[in-house]
Amino acid sequence: MILEVAGLTMRFGGLTAVSAVSFAALRGEITAVIGPNGAGKTTLFNCITGFYRPSSGAIRLHRTGELPVDLHGLPGHRIAQAGVARTFQNIRLFPGMTALENLLVAQHNKLMAATGFGIGAVLGLSRYPKAERQAIELARHWLSATHLLDRADDPAGALPYGAQRRLEIARAMCTEPTLLCLDEPAAGLNPRESEELARLLQEIRAQGTSLLLIEHDMGVVMKISDRVVVLDHGKLIADATPAEVRADPKVIAAYLGEGEEDEVEA
Ligand SMILES: Nc1ncnc2c1ncn2[C@@H]1O[C@H](COP(=O)(O)OP(=O)(O)OP(=O)(O)O)[C@@H](O)[C@H]1O
């Protein structure tokens, strides 16, 4: 496994948004978290990415050849350093910076380390230019993978919505994460853009990054996920393959309801 969630509970005052949820996301797989409105998906996501400190339970990252890292209780930036990148439901790019610059900013930590945190650059040490070249190469790789190479020098804020969403994913990938967490990546995309997104996420998986996504677009979820975790009223009600989840009466009753079954068949 890459991510282990064990007995995770998150309370807001008297409301238990996530209740004793346990599941594992496996290495090299796409794990989707679905559920009706208010099921606790965003809360779970925010616990995993360090925006909330869970009330109880554990979240562990298992990296190959290393000791597991307890993510619960770590601040967001430490979780990012541990190898977990995230995108946001609302786009959070630097709109005035170019697409390329946004991807270089994402590599700031790596570049700063290469300068010996400033000292090396002042002394003109040779490690910085090499690190900078590598950062640009990586940025160009992800611009190309997200079909944005021709927009590299355009301000991020001037890109169409779908392109900005892809740039967000490219930015997250520039941190070279072990686990990429995506919060509703298909929100607001048209069917063609959703198709492209599905392909991009499959490519990311093929390149060795594991993915965890919260998604409402059942077409995308059912097509690309290896495993689907279903929440309802904060509780886990299913953890299975897309085909199994689709046929699970509990899921249909809780999440899909009559009339929405067709959407899942899509
Ligand atoms: N910061 C908060 N303070 C208080 N209650 C919250 C907070 N965040 C979420 N909740 C409550 O927790 C429950 C789960 O919400 P959450 O946003 O995690 O669900 P969700 O599955 O992501 O829903 P949606 O699909 O609508 O985004 C809801 O009842 C919500 O009102």
UniProtKB/TrEMBL annotation:
GO terms (BP aspect): D-alanine transmembrane transport; L-alanine transport; L-isoleucine import across plasma membrane; L-valine import across plasma membrane
Domain ABC transporter: 3-258
InterPro entries: AAA+_ATPase, ABC_AA/LPS_Transport, ABC_transporter-like_ATP-bd, BCA_ABC_TP_C, P-loop_NTPase
Keyword entries, A-Z: Amino-acid transport, ATP-binding, Nucleotide-binding, Transport
Signal peptide interval: none
SUPFAM superfamilies, per database record: P-loop containing nucleoside triphosphate hydrolases
GO cellular-component term (any): plasma membrane
Gene3D superfamilies named in the record: P-loop containing nucleotide triphosphate hydrolases
Single GO MF descriptor: L-valine transmembrane transporter activity
Protein name: ABC transporter ATP-binding protein
Source organism: Roseicella aerolata
